[in-house]
Amino acid sequence: MPSSHSFPPYIIPYPFELYVELYLSRFPKHDLFPFILDSEILEEHHDEETGHRSIKRKVKLNIDAPTWFKKLSGIHYAIFIENTEIDYKQCTMTIRTVNETLSERVLMNDITYYKMDASNPGQTEFQQSGKVEFLKSI
């Protein structure tokens, strides 16, 4: 049975453009984000005329688990495919993330959405939802 999560909207006290720049600076690796072990851009498109940018990347993340669990499971990191769609004219960014590491056992989908806050253009609104479905026992 699938399990879903979602969070109520959250306000980030920074303008949309700055937050997008900060978000993109995490990749391929950044000292402030040590859980991101590596990343690789698979596809990227940018249309200056429409203000639309799309980035598909493979991201290697450290698993926050005890060493004994990593050794027992044989899983030392997780691989995710992340599709980022940025619309600079509408001030929106949508990030769709899918688990690749255990995809034959677990479907994990996450959608994160950012937009300029309608009541204060100097802030960014954040929303997140996701779904986990176990296909086989781990």
Features:
mainly beta, 138 residues, globular, seven-stranded antiparallel sheet, 7 strands
Which structural category do the helix and sheet elements fall into? mainly beta
Query: What is the tally of beta strands?
Result: 7
Helix content: 10-25%
Q: What sort of overall outline do the alpha carbons produce when their principal axes are compared? A: globular
Give the neighbour order of strands across the main sheet: 1-7-6-5-4-3-2
Low-confidence stretches: none
Radius of gyration (Å):
17 Å
Question: How large is the share of residues in beta strands?
Answer: over 45%
SSE order, one letter for each helix or strand: EHEEHEEEE
Which oligomerization state do the chains in this entry correspond to? Answer: single chain
Gap from first CA to last CA: 15 Å
pLDDT average, as an integer? 89
**Continuous helix count:** 2
Largest sheet: 7 strands, antiparallel
Describe the protein.
The protein is mainly beta and 138 residues long. The chain is built from two helices and seven strands, in the order E-H-E-E-H-E-E-E-E. It has helices at 16-24, 67-73; strands spanning 3-12, 36-47, 52-62, 77-87, 92-99, 106-116, 124-134. The protein has a seven-stranded antiparallel sheet with strand order 1-7-6-5-4-3-2. Strand 4 (77-87) and strand 5 (92-99) form a beta hairpin. The protein is globular.
